[in-house]
Design brief:
Helices cover 49% and strands 19% of the residues. With 448 residues, the protein is of the alpha+beta class. The strands form 2 sheets. Strands 1, 2, 4, 5, 6, 7, 8, 9, 10, 11, 12, 13, 15 and 16 form a 14-stranded mixed β-sheet that branches. The protein is elongated and about 120 Å long. The longest helix has 46 residues, at 350-395. It contains 11 helices and 16 strands. It folds into 2 domains: 3-56 and 298-444, no CATH class; 90-270, no CATH class. A hairpin with a 2-residue loop joins strand 5 and strand 6. Helix 2 runs antiparallel to helix 7, helix 2 (18-56) runs antiparallel to helix 10 (411-436) and helix 7 packs across helix 9. Residues 311-430 form the ABC3 transporter permease C-terminal domain. Keywords: Cell membrane, Membrane, Transmembrane, Transmembrane helix. The chain crosses the membrane at residues 21-45, 301-326, 363-390, 410-429. Residues 22-232 form the MacB-like periplasmic core domain.
């Protein structure tokens, strides 16, 4: 008997018992839908967590915190280390910053703002993707670039109530009204002399404003000064990076070489695939690093275990449905005993008879799996739409923006169909074996 004829024979037999076959397919579809929807929660939450991480951090970024020394401690990164880091393969840029070690106050007319002040290496920053919303990069030592939110927080020195808006910026009516480009800011720095604070003002010109941060809740109020300005501040304070020492604190010094040490060093890989290789090379060179890729590995491992557990639980539902398939196929063998007897009497191969019943059980399982997959997509959409509304109505809280509660990647239906197919083959194997063993004479007398 040809395979095409076997399929035709299977479909004819299924039509004879439409109700029983329908209920069996329905049970299988419910089991598959349960498995997919249950596992989709793990996939959905993983997608949301990973997306949140990648939006907050640049995935090609590697933070370098220091280098391990012989005694087991770590020393800060210096210019020699920067040169080593820049020579590592597949490195796009190495950015470095030095932070002014005192509170910085900037003033223009009747407006002022406190901000963090850095010395930054702009050529490497540009390679890493630094952009301006307006203006240009500094060309002379007294020119500075400010963060995007700096102009939005340059507020009046007058005492006013309710100075800030709901976004954490100074309200427009209290804010410096003009464009800051080419305007001169006074930076006030201090030192402690004879127990008293002595101030010095440095006049700086704003030539550029940084690009808006990618996240709404982030604020960039930094000011980037030149290394020459930092040296002028150090000359005034007598301390590295302009630190203010207490009356009893000893004078701080840089290392013997009097070289610069950096407070913040970041490496940017050419692509995400290169990150792990760079991290491994830096580890061999005794550098302490952190990358979001390391964190992603741990999170993915946790979610992989969770998804495997959910798939295992969902498989139980398919196993329960397999009982129905076994029962359906057992009854089919009993009812078709005369047909089996006739097939054997005319010389049908036992393997052909077994294949027919295995085809029927597979047919039922695969139809149920396909229907269950289609239904699960509908349930997943409904869950993602309704859960935020239910939580808002029941608990009065908003779900985090972009949270995906259920997500069904292509691999999940494939896993479900494979599991369902294996289970249905196992369920139909015993009845198929029984069909092969049917006695011809008894079968023709309608007895099994």
């Amino acid at each position: 008997m040809k395979l095409r004829d076997q399929f035709r024979f299977v479909r004819q037999n299924m039509k004879k018992n439409k109700t029983r076959v329908f209920m069996t397919i329905l049970a299988t579809a419910m089991g598959c839908a349960f498995l997919i929807v249950l596992a989709s929660v793990g996939f959905g939450l993983q997608k949301s967590v990973v997306k949140e991480m990648l939006e907050q951090r640049i995935v090609t970024q590697i933070d370098v915190h220091g280098k391990e020394v012989k005694d087991g401690g770590f020393r800060p990164i210096n210019i020699k280390d920067i040169q080593v880091l820049e020579k590592v393969g597949k490195v796009k840029a190495v950015t470095r910053k030095i932070m002014l070690q005192q509170e910085s106050t900037y003033k223009i007319g009747n407006y002022q703002e406190g901000a963090e002040t850095y010395v930054s290496h702009f050529p490497s920053e540009v390679k890493a993707g630094f952009e301006l919303s307006e203006g240009r990069l500094p060309k002379t030592e007294n020119e500075v670039v400010v963060g995007y939110d700096f102009p939005l927080n340059l507020g009046t020195t007058d005492e006013v109530e309710d100075l800030y808006d709901n976004k954490g910026h100074v309200k427009k009516k209290y804010r410096y009204p003009e464009n800051l480009i080419d305007k001169k800011l006074d930076l006030t720095v201090k030192q402690l002399k004879n127990g008293k604070h002595v101030e010095k003002k440095l006049q700086l010109t704003v030539v550029g404003i940084g690009k808006k941060p990618t996240r709404e809740w982030m604020q960039d109020r930094s000011v980037f000064i030149s290394d020459q300005v930092l040296k002028e501040i150090e000359s005034f304070t007598g301390t590295p990076n302009g630190a203010i020492l207490g009356p009893d604190e000893p004078q701080q010094q840089n290392p013997e070489t009097n070289e610069r040490i950096y407070d913040e060093v970041k490496i940017y890989a050419k692509n995400m695939e290169a990150v792990q290789g760079i991290v491994d090379q830096l580890k061999d060179k005794n550098y302490a690093t952190y990358s979001v890729v390391n964190e992603l590995k741990e999170i993915n491992m946790v979610f992989t275990i969770a998804k495997a557990g959910l798939i295992f639980i969902g498989t139980i539902a398919i196993l329960i449905a397999s009982i129905g398939i076994y029962n359906t196929m057992t009854m089919a063998v009993t009812e078709r005993a005369p047909e089996i007897g006739i097939m054997k009497a005319i010389g049908a191969n036992p393997k052909t008879i077994k294949r027919i019943f295995l085809l029927e059980s597979s047919y039922i399982g695969l139809i149920g799996a396909v229907i269950g997959t289609i239904v699960s997509y509908g349930i997943s959409y409904a869950v993602n739409f309704s859960i935020p509304l239910i939580i808002k109505q029941a608990f009065g809280e908003e779900m985090p923006a972009g949270l995906t509660f259920s997500d069904i990647p292509l691999i999940l239906p494939i896993i479900c169909i494979v599991i369902c197919y294996v289970v249905t083959i196992i369920s139909g194997y015993r009845p198929a074996q029984r069909a092969v063993k049917v006695d011809v004479l008894k079968a023709l007398r309608r007895e099994v």
